[in-house]
What we know:
mainly alpha
Amino acid sequence: MNQLASMIDQSPLQxxxxxxxxxxxxxxxxxxxxxxxxVGAIMGSIVLISAxxxxxxxxxxxxxxxxxxxxxxxxxxxxxxxxxGSFFVLARPYRYADNPVFITKILMIFLALPLAYFLxxxxxxxxxxxxxxxxxxxxxxxxxxxxxxxxxxxSITISGRWIAYVEYLIYPT
Length: 173
């Protein structure tokens, strides 16, 4: 990670990020708000689908209907979060390269995204159109992946909040 940080340091991308964060009035809270709204859209889509996959509610809707309505929000929200989060990482690359919580968050995202895609694939391939039963009506593979998905996305969100605070624990002044 430090090699990547050294490549970013003093790069044109870093200059753009620093300029925006320092010179555009209100930019840091605006970009953080965009990031938080992206987290909300991701959590709202994948966690609702996963909760339904576990039979934890929304039984009046089929999983297939939910995937069709909610999954389209996941991918643009993820792109939005990559862009918004990049401003902060580019501005202070060493802060993030040395942060074990940030590294853990990124690794979990790399696990959670393919899992989300696989969950979407399983739901569509199992022909669950009209299935409004509880978890018992869903294949075990969907229930397991739904559970893992919820755990991963909650962990990602918690990690995101801890990124700023772990610095105080690791490097107390």
